[in-house]
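user: Kindly work through both lines:
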Amino acid sequence: MTKLVQLLLLLAVCIFLNATAVIAAPAKDPAPSAKDKCPVCGMFVAKYPNWVASSRLKDGTTYFFDGPKDLFTHYLDTQRYTPGKRQAEIIVMSVKEYYSLKMIDARSAFFVSGSDVFGPMGSELIPFATQQDAASFMNDHKGKRLLRFKEITPAIIKALP
């Protein structure tokens, strides 16, 4: 193969890979507007950008929350807070990672409860992308428990003062 053919082939592969990455890139998480209210407590969510959590349903509806605690409250009793909607319709749940302040998948996050850090609604589940960051935070802020998504129950939410 000539050098020109090799170069053109390499260029075509690079263009294909770049196009694939752009197509596969997830949509940017929407930010709450000044009018978006938490369906659990009624607070205006945009006032607390470092605590924003969200859930998106199959029909494209997005709900915003003023913290992970209210996100879980909604998730665990969806019909109560959003009549006509069901938990099974929720396809994406995101929380703001405590250190990076980037939105992360709530289902893969590590949550610390019982710390001395409070959110807009008081005691909060503090989300982290890594177990190492969560453990470090627990040490620094007197955290009581390290939890994964499936471990968070209505009793755990209710125990948060």
Remarks:
- The chain has a mean pLDDT of 88.
- The beta strands are 53-57, 62-65, 90-96, 103-105, 110-113, 118-119, 122-123, 126-128, 145-148.
- Helices lie at 3-24, 68-76, 78-81, 131-140, 154-159.
- The CA atoms of residues 30 and 62 lie 8 Å apart.
